[in-house]
Structure formats: C-alpha cells, structure tokens
Amino acid sequence: MGDYDGGRFDIQIMLAVKSFNSSVAQDTKPDTSTTGGTSNSLMNPATILGLETKLQTLQNLKNDTNKEFVGAEIDRLTSKLDKGGLPLPPRLVGNVFEQTVDAVCQWVENDPDVSVIGLWGSEGLGKTAVARHIHAKLDSHPDFFVSWVDVPPAFSIDDLQNEIAESLHVDISYDVDHTKRMTQLLKPLEAYKTAFKKSVLILDSVSTTPIPPDQLGIPSDSCTIILTTRSLELCQLTGCQKTVQLEPLSFEDSWELFVEKHGTAILPRLDAIARSIVRECDGVPLGIVTLARCLSLKHVFKREWNAALGKLTAEGGGGGVDQSDPMPTKLFRILRCCYDLLKDWELQRCFIYCGLHAEDSITTRDLMMFSLIDDGVIYSLSLPTTIKKGHEILNKLEDLCLVEGGTDLKGRKYVFMNKSLSDLAMKIAKSRYFLK
C-alpha cells in the first residue's frame, strides 16, 4: 500500500481527510449540468422574501425568549440564504407528483383538523423526493417552522425523540426520564407555535413501527407530522387523517425521466432498445434514474444495452434473488443491472462498502472516506493520492445516482444510500464474501 499502512495511522488518515476534503471535493465535483442530478439552488425573489420574513420573526422570538434553539434555527436559515438556497432534490416528473406536493402543502396550510399525513407506496417510487420538495416549499414560507428527521430502520421511542430533538436544535439525550424528555421536546414546538402559523415535522422512511405522536410527546395542536412509508397499514396505525399513495409513472413520464437523466440524446439505433428498457422499469423512478445514468457511461455500447434488456426481461428473479425478499424482484434486476454496468471493480467495491455503511441513514463524507481508506477499500502509493481517488469514486457514484450526497444542517457533507440500493449491496456482499 505504498508508504503508509491504512489501519495503523487512524489519526493521520482522519486529519488528512479533513485537510484535503474541501479542496479535493471542489476539484473533483461531478458535473450535473446535463444530468439533472441536482436542481438549481438559486432562489426566486418570493423565496428570498419568505426567508427574510421568517428570519425577522425568529429574531423577534429570540429577543423575547433568549432561547438557544431559536438562535440555531436563525443560523441555519441565514446560511441557506447566504448560499442562495440549498440544492433541491431532482425535479419531479409527472403532474401527479406536483399535485401531491401541492395537496400536502394545502392540507398543512388550510386544514386545522389534519395533524398527521402519510405518503406511502412501494420502494423506489419517490416518496423521499416528494417529501423533500414539500420540505423545501414549506421551509421558505414565512408562516411555517419545518424540521426533517431521517428515521432509523430500527429504533426505540427514545432514539427517535433524540433525532427529533436534534432537528429542533435541542439536546435531550442526557435525560432518561420520559416525562422530562417529552417536556424538553415540547419547548421549541410551543415557542414556535407563538411565532408561526404552524410547525411541521417530516419523518422520512418509517419502516416497520407505528409512531403514535402522543408517545413522542407531540400534541396534535403543536405540530403537523408528515411521514413517508411503504405501508398503508402503518399510516393507519400512526393515526394519519390524510394519506397519499404514490403510483408508478406513466410510460410517457418514464421516458421523459429516462432521457433527462441519460444526459445526452438517445441515438436512433438505440431508441427502440431504450424504449423497451424503460417499459421494463414499470414506472419506478429509482430504477429509471439509476439505469439511465449507468447506461450513459462512456464504455457502454449497443451490446451492453441489449444485455441490459435481456436481464430485465429474463424469467425468474435473476442474480440469485430470493423470491421471499422484501425487495421487488423487478427492481432488484434493474439495480443489479446498474451494478454490472459499472465494469470497474474499484467502483463496485466502493458501492458495496457504502451500502453496508450508509444504509438508509446519513453518514458524513469525512467518516465514509476515513473508513474506505482505513479498511483498505481504496488505496494508492500515497495518502494524498488515495484521498483524491476516494473523492473521485464517491463523486462518480453520486453522479450515477448509486449514492446520494448533500450538506446537513451543520454544514457537513454527507453520503446516503437508498434502502433498495443498500439491500442490493448486502445481497452482493453475502454472495461474494459469504457474509451472514
């Protein structure tokens, strides 16, 4: 491994990663100008005015209450305004998605009897993307306080309360008394209740456990909860008064999304194959976007397009998938096809590693880079070269929509992997490395 041994010099690696992070990340930032991978973050005058009005409201609240959590929210919105707005998720395709965003925002704004709203549907249909657009729309509105929580796959009520508290800029992790925790959690919501028309809490990816708001310590008159989940039953058990089922895209919308994400015009000799591939994606945005990006790789020629179509139309699960697995068989075949199209063992290895370490949860980019180097997943003749290579690989995986990247409320860069993609990484790791 050259002149350093990953695994022995943990501190040196972490310091080097932090030192190189900003400069290397800027030098190797992926070009999303043609892929549509990241929406334009520049804000229009109405959005700027909304944020400025909200900041003034918060400043008045801080002057009246002198609460630290209000100051932290002011810092977050000020940073957002200074940067011209944080990047939005990719543009939604299809009128149904836009109508869903508008409908949920209307319920939040105009229906006082709705305190819990559920967005549900199969994996890969864009529930999180819709929720992000709802968050962006409400977050720039002067009448609403909005917070976002990524719900862990397995959690206790205390764990979830800690996550919610962090999004509200308070710390309750030190307190073990349930009543005191609920009281502390309620303080910022009660404060914002006096300053804003409504507070909104978005809980993304609620997987298996219902979350009655009263168990969290959130009265219905203090906050509107919006949750995303795969299960209508879970929405009902959580007490949702309104639910929206996300449906697959039409073929026309699927084709529009595929062409947009592919980034370049589809060659005439590939048009028929491409349309057949899109039909096989069954209107699932996750599969369409990821496959479009991977088919845009420079080394992918007509034979790879034909091979991809063959894999998608093959009978049975393909790839050794267990029919009892929670991931739909067709979606597995689509994502496995994307993995095979990489044809780069280093990219594939890093994809698997990210899937095992960033499953449905936020991991800072620094920590992911440190882990990749320390575990010997990426290496080169020198540590600086290895870090540069690591950024290039992570940026490539982001550009191919195999991992997501962004910046959290504290300005830290993070990486994240959709659960279906992390499930694929786990399946491949089990078959290749005999993991249990």
UniProtKB/TrEMBL annotation:
Pfam families: NB-ARC. Keywords: ATP-binding, Nucleotide-binding, Plant defense. This is NB-ARC domain containing protein. Residues 98-261 form the NB-ARC domain. GO terms for molecular function: ADP binding; ATP binding. SUPFAM superfamilies: P-loop containing nucleoside triphosphate hydrolases (SSF52540). Gene3D superfamilies: Helical domain of apoptotic protease-activating factors, P-loop containing nucleotide triphosphate hydrolases. It comes from the Eukaryota. InterPro entries: Apaf_helical, NB-ARC, P-loop_NTPase, Plant_NBS-LRR. GO terms for biological process: defense response. PANTHER family: AND NB-ARC DOMAIN DISEASE RESISTANCE PROTEIN, PUTATIVE-RELATED, NB-ARC DOMAIN-CONTAINING PROTEIN-RELATED. It comes from Trema orientale.
